[in-house]
Amino acid sequence: MFFSGFSYHQQPGSPGDASAAPSDDRDHNLTVLLTFGIFFSFILLYLVAGVIWASVFTACAVVLSFCYLKIRQRAALRHRAAMRAARSRGGTEAAVVLSAIPAFAYKREGGIGGGGDATGWAQCVICLGLVQVGEVVRRLPVCKHLFHVECIDMWLRSHSTCPICRAAVQPNAAGQPEPPPV
After folding, report:
1. Would the pTM count as exceeding 0.90?
2. 123 forms bridges with which residues in the sheet?
3. Which candidate in 57, 60, 65, 111 could, as Cys together with 117 as Cys, close a disulfide (CB 3.0–4.6 Å)?
4. Quick one: 128 exposed, middle or buried, by C-beta within 10 A (0-12, 13-18, 19+)?
5. Domain with 116 in it
6. Residue 139's closest CA among 128, 151, 129?
């Protein structure tokens, strides 16, 4: 056999053969079986422990995900409630701001040299559409940015600043317009 050279048993006919007891083979077999048994029990224990830890980790991940989603859901509900409350109390403020900004029909500004040929164009950054001649627009008083009436009215119902530069739409309490933030 392959492992016979590694055996600690003495070969028959070698010196000291008389001291070898017949139970040595059984002890050797028992030692090998116990070694393999211990080895495989550790492997089995490692696999079972791995499954247990994987189950614990998965359960923790599921619980954390559930908690995170609940927190996000509650935050969204709070945000919607705050928006409803702001709309209900800020609806009159938005109407006052909108009535203070005049609406007018858009005309292109004059071309180079002051001639009558109008070549300028404007774009509404809210809807990203070009402003056509004759469309009704509003120009914000502080920063002079131009928008379609429908677009800027919808924006100002939920915001109090310019969508481009974030300058306050209404002048401050002293009557001086606020500069846009840097």
Report:
1. no
2. 130
3. 111
4. exposed
5. 101-182
6. 151
114-157: pLDDT as tens digits:
444 455 678 898 999 899 888 999 999 888 899 999 999 888 88
Q: Which residues contact 25 (CB under 8 A, 6 or more apart)?
A: 9
How many separate domains does the chain show? 2
Rg (CA), the chain: 43
**Closest listed residue to residue 131, CA positions, set 123, 119, 143, 139:** 123
7 is a domain residue: no
86 in the same domain as 159: no
12-70 pLDDT per residue, tens = 555 555 555 555 777 888 888 888 888 888 888 888 888 888 888 888 889 999 999 89
**Given 70, 90, 110, which residue is the final one in a domain?**
90
State whether 167 and 112 are in the same domain: yes
Residue 63 lies in a domain: yes
Q: Is residue 96 part of a domain?
A: no
| In a shared domain, residues 118 and 41 | no
Neighbours of 162 (CB within 10 A): 21
Is 182 part of any domain?
Answer: yes
Positive/negative CA dihedral, 30, 35, 41, 44: negative
DSSP classification of residue 142: T
